[in-house]
């Protein structure tokens, strides 16, 4: 994927595993880097003897001393050490050179017990969010434009995450609202019972497709098509907000369509009959009578759609990228609030760490936003029920 | 003499046409526009399924369910641990959430007095919970179940979290099914001297079962496809064994798929597509079962 991205764009530059380069030498050119002692070209030898710094690094495994006392763990580590060469080649990593091999096989007592047991840490009863805001002020959190929570010098300004969330939500709604509303009008005003019975299961299936699948589709189908169709000056990144937003829009269509259709079907027929009696056609009746009468229900559906788009995780985690950038350019890779939670939480986060609390702080913000949206939507639905009944 | 002028009645014009023109371009264009809207969803679904089938074709064979995942050899990697993990997690999710959800629905429909503030609160809460993003449930599971209650990242934590996630859906669907049973049935049963519980157990529930089953299947199929909360609950770690109990580490299909998508080797993308085909097949089967149940057993009162 990165190979295609670099090969496809002028001046493209990418960082990835050496083995991908070996597989694609016809399309790519490896660059030399200067790690302080002159330029070094990447090669198997340079990686082995450590001169290709800082981009080549050794891969360590750390068994804990306690675990090593168990026979099966010891057996596994011995197996790993014995067969490291074959394993590394299979995984397309660069194996160790002979000198490093001897260090590896030397009794590994010195490098034991790196990761002590985490069990027994008493979990603080104070919610981690409160802890977070004791260190980071609310103004810094909501006003800052730098989000580098997982870096060594962290900044906690949530605006980049928030702007990415909003941008993707806007793109999604630009697709979902017109299309969903159009489908709803057709289903409620035009379609007869047989067509409705045939179409509704399709919409239900569309609504039931897991979001991982949508994410995969956005990354490996929609983005390449965008690259083909958009002019060369507007090439999207390998992961970008546009593809994620478009696909998310399609994901929300069934929800907006079925909720708005419910609202439209609830409009009493008397209203339609009056309009027909005055000589209106079907289009005028739909647009000027039914839609305004069902407006609060339609708005409720859209608000619920917004809340769904804001809270959607897998599509953005897969297709929109993991860099928190404060930008409104939909062709760029960017990270949303949910994307950050997924990225920070998918590792094994130690409870005591500040990252753990960051997850809770961003989660709290996400919860507050969607909660407000849901309340608005519930209110609106009640209102249209009162009007119609 | 007075000049009498007789104003002649205006010559009768052409008879007025009451009906508008037969062909109204605005109307037809609008209808076409609406059809296009519907087509977007349908075409998208068609393209999605075709694309995934084409991508998955080279890898759609028995290796997928006979082998365990491997980061080293994509040609030998499979999803057995993920398939078994999904079965374990969903079975326990059903065990936890269906009885709770159905009983909550019975309480809300049959016993609760909607005038009381706490019942209104519960109702509002359920509506709201149904729309809370799933990753928030993941955070809840991580903070409360995995850490505070020290359940760890196990099958138990995963299925409890997923139960919480789909509980509102189960409650709402079951309530609708129970509400659809006409009041006259209850009144007849009560008039014959049955207690309230007898009425519910022997009259209301049997009549509502198809609706409850449909809703429950749809809720569980949502749980099967859910990946976001489980990302936080340790399902991402590389698992090369099937779960053996509630305390076991696990992975599930959507997470395994996510894992393969994040791998940069091209072979893993075919593998991801193949995993998606299995997942979609399971979901389509469940959806078809739900639709069949609805059409076969739903009564019109």
Descriptive overview:
The complex is a heterodimer of chains A (389) and B (301). Chain A has 389 residues and is mainly alpha-helical. Chain A has three domains: 2-48, no CATH class; 65-111, no CATH class; 159-388, MetI-like fold (Orthogonal Bundle). In chain A, 62% of the residues lie in helices and 1% in strands. In chain A, a hairpin with a 4-residue loop joins strand 1 and strand 2. The radius of gyration of chain A is 28 Å and the shape is elongated. Chain B has one domain: MetI-like (MetI-like fold), CATH 1.10.3720.10. The model of chain B has no long low-confidence stretch (mean pLDDT 83). With 301 residues, chain B is an all-alpha fold. At the A-B interface, helix 10, helix 11, helix 12, helix 13 and helix 15 of A face helix 1, helix 4, helix 5, helix 8 and helix 9 of B. Chain B: This is Phosphate transport system permease protein PstA. Chain B: GO terms for molecular function: phosphate transmembrane transporter activity.
Keywords:
heterodimer, A: 389 residues, mainly alpha, MetI-like fold, 3 domains, two-stranded antiparallel sheet, 2 strands, 1% strand, elongated, B: 301 residues, 11 helices, Phosphate transport system permease protein PstA (chain B), transmembrane (chain B)
The number of helical elements of chain A comes to 19
Determine the oligomeric state from the structure. Answer: heterodimer
Strand content of chain B: under 5%
CATH topology of chain B: MetI-like fold
Short description:
With 389 residues, chain A is an all-alpha fold. Chain A has helices at 2-8, 18-23, 44-48, 65-68, 71-82, 84-90, 98-105, 128-135, 138-143, 159-190, 193-208, 211-229, 241-265, 269-277, 282-293, 295-311, 314-319, 337-345, 354-388; strands spanning 33-34, 39-40. The radius of gyration of chain B is 29 Å and the shape is flat.
